[in-house]
Amino acid sequence: MTGRKFFVGGNWKMNGDKKSIEELATIMNNAKLNPDTEVVCGAPTIYLDFARSKLNPNIDVAAQNCYKVAKGAFTGEISPAMIKDCGVKWVILGHSERRHVFGESDELIGQKVAHALECGLGVIACIGEKLDEREAGITEKVVFSQTKFIADNVKDWSKVVLAYEPVWAIGTGKTASPQQAQEVHDKLRQWMKANVSEAVANTVRIIYGGSVTGGTCKELASQKDVDGFLVGGASLKPEFIDIINAKA
Ligand code: PGA
Question: Which run of H or of E encompasses 7?
Answer without folding.
Answer: strand 6-11
